[in-house]
């Protein structure tokens, strides 16, 4: 169990999820040290502090994190970009975070992603022990992060909860996200269980609400005592028929991320869409 009398480090604090967690967790009494290379766009919550730093600056990270017992690692690039752009913040940055956790004997919540598995077709239901099939360099970096976390658990006893985040949004915008949606409340309650569970070892959680159309099945939520309370099901009527005209995006779990730089010539659109391919 994490001692929340010690401060908690939150990387990626200026991003969409970082800002959400900063506000909500501070409201629960957490003392957060917020970090990002971008300025924090909101008023810093009471009892918290913001520190501008780059995840590639290992010395700065060590200095800011002194005394922390939990690291919420949400930092790095969160969109599909070039390998060179991803390499520093997502690969070297994750290594720096785990070396920090080893030094501090801190627990880590690693913000993994559904895009580490995005090249599975939508007809496949995945359990937590499935093989990674990343849909791009971003997803590849998250698959690497999970392997890094497992290695630090098995070699150094650094505990991690790897959360394979789906789509954390206020509401469901289209049919695909009926499967991947996670409510704000479910994300916050998961962070509380990541901190409050006595032992987590190396645990994997599919980061989604209780959606009947989910692509994902078994994970380690029983170990954490966590169950999502919300569901996308009640939003189905508002998004039925809201799909893209891209046959690649509609075939795979990763959606539009798969389509970026997708060049294989043997993809047959009719396998997913009988008849003429969509315009």
Short recap of the structure:
The chain is an alpha/beta fold and 279 residues long.
3D architecture notes:
It is built from ten helices and nine strands. The chain is an alpha/beta fold and 279 residues long. The protein has one domain (8-271): NAD(P)-binding Rossmann-like Domain (Rossmann fold). The chain starts with 7 loop residues before the first strand and ends in a 20-residue tail after the last helix.
CATH superfamily: NAD(P)-binding Rossmann-like Domain
The averaged pLDDT comes out at: 95
Shape: globular
- The level 1 CATH classification is Alpha Beta
What does the radius of gyration come to?
A: 19 Å
Residue share in helices?
Answer: 25-40%
Q: Let me know the number of strands.
A: 9
Query: Which class best fits the helix and strand makeup?
Result: alpha/beta
Provide the CATH architecture.
Answer: 3-Layer(aba) Sandwich
Strand content: 5-15%
Secondary structure elements and pairings:
Blueprint: E1 8-11, H1 16-27, E2 32-36, E3 49-52, H2 58-65, E4 70-73, H3 83-104, E5 107-113, H4 137-156, E6 160-165, E7 167-168, H5 177-180, E8 181-182, H6 184-196, E9 202-207, H7 221-224, H8 236-239, H9 247-251, H10 256-259
Parallel strand pairs: 1-2, 1-4, 2-3, 4-5, 5-6, 6-9, 7-8
Helix pairs in contact: 2-3, 3-4
């Amino acid at each position: 169990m994490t001692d929340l009398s010690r401060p908690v480090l939150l990387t990626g604090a200026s991003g969409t999820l970082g800002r959400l967690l900063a506000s909500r967790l501070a409201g629960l009494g957490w003392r957060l040290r917020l970090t990002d290379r971008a300025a924090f766009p909101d008023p810093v919550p009471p009892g918290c502090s913001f520190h501008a730093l780059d995840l590639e600056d290992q010395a700065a990270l060590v200095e800011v994190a002194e005394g922390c017992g939990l690291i919420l690692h949400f930092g790095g690039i969160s969109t599909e970009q070039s390998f060179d752009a991803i390499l520093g913040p997502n690969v070297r940055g994750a290594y720096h975070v785990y070396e920090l956790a080893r030094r501090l004997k801190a627990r880590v919540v690693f913000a993994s992603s559904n895009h580490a598995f995005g090249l599975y077709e939508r007809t496949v239901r995945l359990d937590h022990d499935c093989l990674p099939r990343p849909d791009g360099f971003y997803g590849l970096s998250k698959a690497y992060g999970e392997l890094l976390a497992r290695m630090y658990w098995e070699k150094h006893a650094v505990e991690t909860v790897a959360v394979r985040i789906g789509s954390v949004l206020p509401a469901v915008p289209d049919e695909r996200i009926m499967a991947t949606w996670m409510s704000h409340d479910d994300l916050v309650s998961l962070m509380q269980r990541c901190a409050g569970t006595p032992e987590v070892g190396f645990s994997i959680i599919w980061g989604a609400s209780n959606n009947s159309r989910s692509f994902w099945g078994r994970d380690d939520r029983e170990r954490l005592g966590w169950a999502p309370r919300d569901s996308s099901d009640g939003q189905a009527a508002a998004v039925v028929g809201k799909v893209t005209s891209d046959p690649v995006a509609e075939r795979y779990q990763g959606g539009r991320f798969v389509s970026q730089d997708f060049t294989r010539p043997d993809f047959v659109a009719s396998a997913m869409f009988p008849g003429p391919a969509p315009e």
